[in-house]
Amino acid sequence: MSKHIVITGAASGIGFGIAKFMIEKGHSVTLADMNQDAVSKAAADLGGEEAGAYALQLDVTDMQAVSELPSRLFKPADALINNAGIQHVAKLENFPADKWQKLIEVMLVGPAMLTKALLPGMRERGHGRIINVGSIHSVIASPYKSAYIAAKHGLLGFAKTVALETGDVDITINTLCPAYVKTPLVEKQIAAQAIENNMSEEDVVNKIMLEPMPKKAFIDISELAESAAFLLSDAAKNITAQTLILDGGWTAR
Length: 253
Description:
Protein name: 3-hydroxybutyrate dehydrogenase
Enzyme class: oxidoreductase
Family: Belongs to the short-chain dehydrogenases/reductases (SDR) family.
Keywords: Oxidoreductase
Radius of gyration: 18 Å
Largest sheet: 7 strands, parallel
GO molecular function, one term: 3-hydroxybutyrate dehydrogenase activity
CATH topology: Rossmann fold
């Protein structure tokens, strides 16, 4: 059955890739992003409204805009994919306080308040799916990423709590936790990590990013899209509060 899926951070990277996959599968998608021009272009690239791709400018840290989200959608949301993310790489001593707070607002407060905004409608219709795009850093840590890791860890506790609060209805909430995915965000991380660790970008990829992974490979966006599609299906109706780790064996150690 076709669903209407809201995806944040959908103008590029993981969000855009999942949106493309879902539209190809016959779903309609509201691509939400803070960059109006970028998200409008992204939706147009996917065929626009005729193809089921709707653009929406949304800053997930703007609480008024988030609370008004249900009234701005072309139809009620069957699913929410909390994907919007940013990164800053620095030792805690050098980490600007405003940047630390911003990462938490985008990647933890934002998903919580978006879920809050859409849950009443899902509950009223008796069905809903919430998927958080977490990270391998939802379950392990690395230096120089304290805010990002705190936010991504927080998503797991948030999902568990919401799962307990929605156990009486067909609503699920889960978190996808991939190892490194080759996106513009990760490309910037490679450069920043090279500076912090005083090594080449090639060494960052091989010695920091891929070294812990037995499979030695970046996760492909299609893997995340397929996993999200499964979580949207009826076959996953009793999978909730779970952390799905796509890590090439990283956490087996």
